[in-house]
Specification:
Layout: H1 15-39, H2 53-84, H3 91-114, H4 122-147, H5 151-173
Helix pairs in contact: 2-3, 2-4, 2-5, 3-4, 4-5
Length: 180
């Protein structure tokens, strides 16, 4: 029995085509490097953050929490406006503003409560929800002050706003939420 020793055909690529392929691959590498540098989030030291699903979930939650703190600041101003309003003039307008403030507080509290929280953010979530509920109570008391303009109602709204501010202050100092 004789075996035929046939040679496999050789693939030949010209040097010019190899150079063109190399330049093309180099160009793609440069383009993707630039895109990656522009799009990638950076940590405190300016290095790119690897966005694994768990890391991305934590970063997304952290950013949401920072937005909520900003919304709490806006809500705080709205409540101050309602409490500070003198009980003169158009009761309907004052009531409408107070109701809008209460609605803002309800919507923010619901948004915070319904957000999916990564396990590491549970402590912050409890603190965030507690603070938003305090603001909700302050907004409710401010509406009550507009409806029944007695000094005890105004004092209650002011006290509840102070308690909410303390909670927000603690959130603002939380190292986990500070921008990186």
């Amino acid at each position: 029995m004789t075996l035929n020793n046939t040679h496999d055909p050789e693939i030949q690529i010209s040097e010019e085509k190899l150079q063109k392929l190399g330049l093309f691959l180099f160009g793609l590498t440069v383009i993707f490097t630039i895109i990656g540098a522009v799009v990638s989030p950076l940590d405190t030291f300016g290095k790119p953050v690897l966005l694994l699903p768990q890391v991305k979930a934590v970063e997304d939650y952290r950013r949401s929490a920072q937005v909520w703190i900003s919304e709490l600041t806006i809500l705080d101003g709205e409540i101050v406006h309602v409490i500070a309003a003198e009980q003169q003039g158009d009761l309907f307008s004052q009531s409408r503003v107070a109701q809008q403030t209460l609605q803002h507080a309800v919507e923010l509290t619901q948004k915070i409560d319904r957000t999916r929280v990564p396990p590491i953010g549970m402590g912050v979530q409890e603190q965030m929800l507690s603070t938003s509920v305090r603001y909700l109570e302050a907004a409710r008391s401010a509406l009550q002050w507009v409806s029944v303009p007695k000094q005890k109602n105004r004092d209650l709204a002011t006290q509840q706003l102070e308690a909410a501010r303390q909670g927000k202050s603690e959130l603002e100092k939380n190292q986990w939420l500070i921008s990186r």
